[in-house]
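Dear U.,

Please find below the material for section 3 of the report. The protein was modelled together with flavin-adenine dinucleotide; I have listed the sequence and SMILES used, followed by the predicted complex structure.
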Amino acid sequence: MKNSKIDFDVFIIGAGPGGSIAGKIAVENGYKTCIIEKDVIGDNGRYKACGGAIAWELIEEIDYPEDKISRTFESLELHHVDGIRFSKKGKGVTIWRNTFDKFLSDMAIDCGAILKESEPLIGIEKTDSFYRISTKKGNYIVKYIIASDGATSTTLKLLGWPYFKKENLILTITKEMKTSKEFINKMLGNDAVHAFFGIKSLIPIGYAWLFPKAETITVGWGNQINLVKNSREEFKKFENLPFVKNALQDSKLSIFKSHLIPVGLRPKLYEDNVFAVGDAGGIVDPISGKGIPYAMMSGQIAIETIKTCENRDKLDKLGIYYEKNLDKKFLRVLKAKRIARDQIFQNDENLKRFLSLWEKYRSSEIIMRRLL
Ligand SMILES: Cc1cc2nc3c(=O)[nH]c(=O)nc-3n(C[C@H](O)[C@H](O)[C@H](O)COP(=O)(O)OP(=O)(O)OC[C@H]3O[C@@H](n4cnc5c(N)ncnc54)[C@H](O)[C@@H]3O)c2cc1C
């Protein structure tokens, strides 16, 4: 039964992939839905530090327009600094996040969700059975909250939820290097993205990457946050690898940004009608740092869980069902990968063995079939 005191049934904080898909699915299920976003989204909107690599299957699933794709690739080249290289075949694309996120938020708007841009969340107060939300522009009474505002989620901070353990956070640095298409094709190949590993002499737990877009190389580096001693020096070590140095010669820095990737779950994903979705919940592949598809799926699952529990009169089970549904779809595998990650990054021997297997198998297969 609808309550007239409520402004929105579902209130979503953050219009990233998780928030936009939650918004779309919420409207499709009949919920009055609002998404607030602190920035402006769009081609000239906020920049988001991201490799922007997405599997081809996802592009097909959401019917992402070809003219919004920066580059198509056929392989992920895995370089170990000891000189070994593996080539993992698989079709994917690179995209710019401002364009991609705009496409997803337009999908939510087209379904009927209200998107309020440049409207950051500043306060949350719990009343008897609702939440009173304050933003820089207004106040709203809402029933369900989707926290999809990223790794440093203000929503969950305001609600006093526990933060990530240090060993579950990767500190990343991204540099966008402008160059020409021809030069990228010559140095990196016209159909490859590159990742760089090496525990002893490059990055203790993490990796670095060169992900080309049309005329830009996204240069990224990520290391477990409590193992970082001097990020700029460590990043420089990567840039000085001969392959990387060659690829980046004559390119011009256009953006420099650091950001966090959570690679393990928050201690909880649900409480009192509040759902942690995507990065806010740490719902990310702990080995690769891939998070876009998991943010989208967790946004969808949060809303479907609300619907099912309402229909079955099981609202006291929302949290249990949310995690159960996530587990069924993919979270069980991510949890296993989080455990395997410690083994893979224990020493270079284990890492090389993993890379050699990754060339032939999906990482989920390696972990679940215990091939390591
Ligand atoms: C350097 C780097 C490289 C990556 N490369 C890849 C990759 O190649 N492929 C891949 O799949 N994943 C990659 N990831 C992971 C991916 O970026 C995230 O997993 C994904 O963006 C998570 O989506 P989300 O919707 O949960 O959160 P986000 O995309 O972080 O979106 C959160 C949104 O909330 C908004 N927001 C924040 N605070 C507030 C507030 N107070 N009020 C209102 N709005 C707010 C933000 O502006 C933002 O739009 C990478 C991450 C990093 C850091």
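For the text of the report, you could mention the following: The CA atoms of residues 90 and 283 lie 23 Å apart.

Regards,
Y.
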